[in-house]
Every structure is written in structure tokens, then in C-alpha cells.
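Class, carefully examine what follows:
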Amino acid sequence: QLQLVESGGGLVQPGGSLRLSCAASGFRFSMYVIFWYRQGPGKERDSVASITTIGGHTNYADSVKGRFTISRDNAKNTAFLQMNSLKPEDTAVYYCNAVSTIDRSSYWGQGTQVTVSS
């Protein structure tokens, strides 16, 4: 069964850190580009970061550059989003998205809530 499962969200104080994980199963993870998106309250879903299949290239939204780091471990079929220096405006549901480099098929996880508040 094809699945993406995010974990690692929670409540953190401003300035704190969280590490999100995206565990994949049921498909050839190493052939997929991985994106992290987020959707804040009353906002649209926006791209946060992306990483190519072997991790050779990453991209970040301007709002998270220098604070967030995307990575992946193809041997463990898992992607990560390390989030440091968190701000209240980072509060959102964070989603993992996998896009095939072969046929552009796209899969989404169910999301994990990140709340940054004192």
C-alpha cells in the first residue's frame, strides 16, 4: 500500500526546533523528488522546501532559508525537515509530497501540525 506518513510535529516555543519526518512505503522512494509544504490557518498551501532524488539539490522558500534544512535517507525511505529558530508565523500543518521523476505522479501525506507559541 502506497503511503507517506509525516511525524515530529508539536508545540514549540519561539526560537525552538523541531525535526519532521516523512516515511514512505509502497513505492520506489529514491525515484521521487520530495517536497515539504505547509498550510497555515486561513492560508493557502505553500511550498517550503524540496530535495532531488539523491539529495544533490535543495530549494527553500525565502521565509525559511537559513533556518530549515531538508534532507533524505533513501536507504530508509525517509525524508526530513529540520526546523530551527522557529517563529510563530511558522505555525501550520506541514505536508510531505512525493513527485515521480518518471511519470510525475504525486502522493501526499496526511500532514503534521506544528504550533509555535509561547
Q: What stands out?
A: The first strand starts at residue 3 and ends at 7.
